[in-house]
Design a protein that fits this description.
It is a single chain. With about 500 residues, this protein is of the alpha/beta class. The chain has 11 helices and 24 strands. Strands 1-2-3-5-7-9-11-12-13 form a 9-stranded mixed beta sheet. Keywords: Cell adhesion, Disulfide bond, Glycoprotein, Immunoglobulin domain, Leucine-rich repeat, Membrane, Repeat, Signal, Transmembrane, Transmembrane helix. It holds the Pfam family LRR_8. It is found in: Membrane. It is a single-pass type I membrane protein.
């Protein structure tokens, strides 16, 4: 920064008189990385790595030769009045920023940018350009920011911005533009990523509100129009009032400069001051949001508060006016003033405006239509199928649990009275899975009883409930202290399945 300031201060003293430190700075710049490989630093310029600064060097043409490693080239505040096709003799593949502001530039060749295909930032502001010629920037496919403000531009060719698919910001303020071709931006194919358009301080007298409504929302909300001699009308008022309601910076930050001309007023008036003012009597527009899906049929209601409506029509996002009952294509005006849209497509999404003219006031209602990129029946059917499958799986698990735990056991009374009793010696189940093994001297089996008998205290699967275990009669002998098998053991649950160890 100190180097740049000293050079800028010394070069302002007079043409052809370099500052005393300049030779030393140039010698140091030649030792910068890439200096010997890509070429030497031009006279009156300072090279710092891949940055080449020739600002305020009293240059009448682009210095040559330019180092091929240059990524940023600053030629601002010079006298370069013409930018020819051969200003860069070789291809500058690394150049991504070119600054040419404050040069008195009046001519730019249509082939001037053929050698800088990777340029992303181009500053042509504060010059004397009068027109944007055909295909002027078509070689800059990677350009992102284009500054053209403070020129004398009055004509803009419809193809001047062709092939600028990555342009995000376009500054055209402080020029002499009386009409900008906004229809080039309507479908989004020319400048698909444009997010800021500055047309302030020009000579625009009227605005095609229908075309503005057709612009993408991200561009419509960053459109700067202040400082133009616009004619006052209600659509203009409603457009600005809508921006104020949404707290858009293009309206809030420049509210005092958003003025228009009334035939009966000697001086411009604030656009937002037109509410209820004679002779227009404008009212602020209302807005609604409606969601739909592809292929649906929707009806947009024009819920006006005015009585004695004299005329009414709709404007689609594409700028098409639907004023006759019946209409054509997919949009039809109904008898009650509503707009019916059939077989919705993705391009049907956007802002629809209903214009209503009453005996005293005019009113505009906006309806924002959101069209989801799927049909109402496609993904929902998939969701229903998945839901049904999940319910089926849960039901299957429940049935298995019911079968395992709630199926009545096949007790002796169900098998018949002729079945012989179980052997009295130790079984595999009792010896392996019971807490206390059953021996021959254990308690004899109880006779088969009904499951409904409360005396047994039995529960599901033949288990005995807590506190309901029958007490065996007192016995005598060394084995009298033995207890019955644990009723909650695995053998009581899976009584019908032999366990092999």
């Amino acid at each position: 920064d100190a180097m740049g300031q000293s050079v800028a201060t010394g070069s302002a003293g007079g043409p052809g008189a370099p500052p005393p430190l300049l030779p030393l700075l140039l010698a140091l710049a030649l030792l910068a990385p890439g200096g010997s490989a890509g070429g030497s630093c031009p006279p009156r310029c300072v090279c710092a790595s891949n940055i080449l600064s020739c600002s305020q060097a009293v240059l009448s043409s682009v210095p040559a030769p330019l180092p091929r490693f240059t990524a940023v080239l600053d030629l601002s505040h010079n006298n370069v009045s013409r930018l020819r096709a051969d200003w860069a003799p070789g291809r500058l593949a690394h150049l991504h920023a070119l600054l040419l502001s404050h040069n008195g530039l009046s001519f730019v060749s249509t082939e001037a940018f053929a050698h800088v295909p990777h340029l992303r930032h181009l500053d042509l502001s504060s010059n004397r350009l009068r027109a944007l010629e055909e295909n002027l920037f078509s070689d800059l496919a990677e350009l992102e920011v284009l500054l053209l403000y403070n020129n004398e531009i009055s004509a803009v060719d419809r193809t001047a911005f062709d092939n600028l698919g990555r342009l995000r910001k376009l500054y055209l303020g402080q020029n002499r533009i009386a009409r900008f071709p906004l229809e080039l931006l309507r479908d989004g194919s020319r400048l698909p990523q444009l997010a800021l358009l500055d047309l302030s301080a020009n000579r625009l007298r009227s605005l095609p509100v229908g075309e503005l409504q057709a612009l993408p929302a991200w561009l419509r909300d960053r459109l700067y129009l202040h400082g133009n001699p616009l004619a006052c009308d209600c659509p203009l008022f409603q457009l600005v009032a809508r921006g104020r309601r949404r707290r858009l910076s293009a309206v809030v930050d420049f509210q005092e400069e958003l003025r228009c001309l009334l035939p009966t007023a000697p001086a411009p008036v604030g656009i937002l001051a037109l509410a209820g003012r004679q002779p227009l009597n404008c009212s602020e527009a209302r807005e609604a949001v409606l969601e739909a899906h592809l292929g649906d049929t929707v009806t947009l209601s024009c819920d006006t508060r005015l009585r004695g409506v004299r005329s009414q029509h709709w404007v689609t996002p594409g700028g098409e006016r639907v004023a006759e009952e019946g209409g054509n294509g997919s949009a039809a005006l109904l008898a009650n003033g509503s707009l019916q849209l059939r077989a919705l497509r993705p391009e049907d999404a956007g802002t629809y405006a209903c214009w209503v003219a009453g005996p005293l006031l005019n009113e505009t209602l906006y309806v924002e239509l959101l069209v989801h990129n799927f049909t109402l029946h496609g993904p929902h059917d998939t969701l229903n199928t998945a839901y049904t499958t999940l319910v089926g799986c849960i039901l299957s698990v429940v049935l298995v649990l019911i079968y395992l735990y709630l199926t009545p056991c096949r007790c002796c009374c169900c098998r018949g009275a002729e079945k012989p009793p179980a052997p009295r010696d130790d079984s595999i189940n009792s010896s392996v899975l019971s807490a206390t093994p059953n021996h021959a001297a254990a308690v004899p089996r109880e006779p088969c009883r009904s499951r409904s008998a409360s005396a047994t205290g039995s529960g599901q699967n033949g288990r005995f409930k807590v506190g309901g275990t029958p007490q065996p009669p007192p016995r005598h002998g060394p084995k009298a202290q033995r207890k019955v098998s644990d009723p909650d053991s695995v053998s009581s649950v899976f009584s019908d399945t032999p366990i092999v160890v």
